[in-house]
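Regression test case RT-17, inverse folding.

Input:
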């Protein structure tokens, strides 16, 4: 079994799409470890705030198969893959880590660069995987978060009503 981490985000009907996606992922992978939910401003465009979290799971599937399943969950939740990269979305599911694998194959990039670039990915990852090591830098996610520039950080932990149902 390989341990993987998925970055989950939404800023359109997020109270519907995020819990529904967690149920879909539970059906595929079984037990999930879920970080806190973080609210953050849109990055790269003007839009509604996002809710972001990280999900830890285990699977015997290969990374491409997992990514394909995540893409289908996005499509099932109304995600349009023809929209610009920096735009509002119903659901964004990114496989950011898969064991210690390093993959650069078209759209599949593992580990994802977003881990070290965006607080909305790194902080929830450090919350549930602080002692795990980044496959490239070999630094723990806790250390990466500790050293992250938080000067202009605008995100905060929130407790949406749907969280009690998960």
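Golden output:
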């Amino acid at each position: 079994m390989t341990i993987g981490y998925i970055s989950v985000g939404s800023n359109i009907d997020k109270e519907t799409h995020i819990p529904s996606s967690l149920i879909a992922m539970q059906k595929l992978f079984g037990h999930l470890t879920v970080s806190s939910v973080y609210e953050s401003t849109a990055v790269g465009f003007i839009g509604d705030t996002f809710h972001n979290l990280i999900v830890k799971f285990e699977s015997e599937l290969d990374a491409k198969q997992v990514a394909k399943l995540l893409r289908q969950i996005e499509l099932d939740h109304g995600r349009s893959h023809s929209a610009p990269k920096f735009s509002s979305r119903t659901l964004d599911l990114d496989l950011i880590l898969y064991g210690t694998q390093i993959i650069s194959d078209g759209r599949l990039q593992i580990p994802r660069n977003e881990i070290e670039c965006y607080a909305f990915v790194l902080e929830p990852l450090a919350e549930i995987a602080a002692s795990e090591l980044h496959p490239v830098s070999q630094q723990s996610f806790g250390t990466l978060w500790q050293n992250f520039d938080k000067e202009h950080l605008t995100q905060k932990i929130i407790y949406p009503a749907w969280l009690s149902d998960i």
